[in-house]
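ok so I'm stuck.
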Amino acid sequence: MTTSLKQKIHAMLFGDPSTFQAARIFNYIFFSSILISISVLVLESVSDIAARYSEELRFAEIFFTVFFTAEYFLRAWSYAAILPIGVNDNTRLMKTGPHYIFSFHGIVDFLATAPFYFQMIFPGLDLRFLRAVRMLRVLKLSHYNSALEDLYMAVYDERNSIVSAVYILAIAILITSCFAYYAEAGVQPDKFGSIPDAMWWSIITLTTVGYGDASPITPFGKVIGVFTAFAGVCTVAVLTGIVATSFTNQLTRKKVLFESHAREIIKCGGGKSELENLRKTLNLTPQHADALIEKIKSEDY
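replied:
not stuck anymore, here's the structure
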């Protein structure tokens, strides 16, 4: 009875909305709750609205906090359910509550509600800080999209290259800020009066932001500014290229993995549901999956 209930809740919280009606209904409610709760947090920052509708906003925040708290504990409890995954019915994985609690989604779900209880325990905490932390609730949408996880994996896979690029960026910041300090300190002591002050200008120039609150006015300083801006464009291009290449490599690996497992599923007489579960596990688009399946079938026949 308990195991059956746990699997039903697991299917509702983690299941495929196209297969389980309960999962589809919960996803609609869950998605709407996230958007409305974020809107409530935003409206709380408007003093006129907060003063006029303080009771309504407070009630809404309590309601959504209770809802997300219950959802968090149900996810942790039902995560231990044994459900079939992988390429055949014999492949199963025992998942336990702690695995969810310390996973990316578990940490995000915890941070989405923790500030409310911290405020109850420590009433003197800065409300603006707590409101900012509660805005992390938007990350709960990652339950429906793996973009953040893909970004993390892209950065992690290319961590050595990114560290090298950041090292070059740090050297560029130090050198350009020293030259800018030498060229501008005498005429703009308020903006380039020290190397740390010049570093602010160097950072915003190298990152191609260019706020305009500080800029060189001496001939030598302008030359330094040109080289700094050029170096910034190159650095951003390098970092962008590293991450973009990693994203492409991830997609390629997913396609190879899908093709390998899909070939085994088709060989063993598996159905469309297993292929669809595999596609969603690897987060491939239906177009990519269909193309690979057609390729496998054409090779076999």
